[in-house]
Structures are given as structure tokens and as C-alpha cells.
Amino acid sequence: MTFSQALELIKNGKKITNTQWNNKSGMFLELQRRDKNSKMTKPYIYFNIPCEEEDSGYQRVPYIPSNHDLFSEEWCSI
Question: How far apart are CA 43 and CA 34, in angstroms?
Fold first, then answer.
């Protein structure tokens, strides 16, 4: 699917990934919305990157799509 289609899914609470990434590592994107513990005032998308050292099993870092990501048609929901 396109980035636009994937963006609609993530807005509805789905996790998305791109098959062109090194998905053997299990990276995916999620949307964080503001809640009572947030310091952010607007929603943002972040990477979940598997990490054995973390208690949660993932490192979470902000995501900004590249041109390649924006024009990719290899997005899918997980």
C-alpha cells in the first residue's frame, strides 16, 4: 500500500511497517496521541526498534518519513 494508505491505518491505531526495511529486525511504526502523561501536545509517529537490552524489548525513537518512505508502495499493517 502507499504511505497515504498506511498513514490512515496508523491514525486508526494500527501498527505499520515497510517491507523494504530490514524487517528481519522487526521494526514498525506506531502513533502516540497525547494522554495525561504526555509532554507532547500533538500526536507523533515513532519507530519501535527491537532491542534486547530494554525491558520493553524495543527502543522508541521519533520518526520523520524520508522521500523514499513517502513514495514507497511497500507499506503494510502488522
Answer: 6
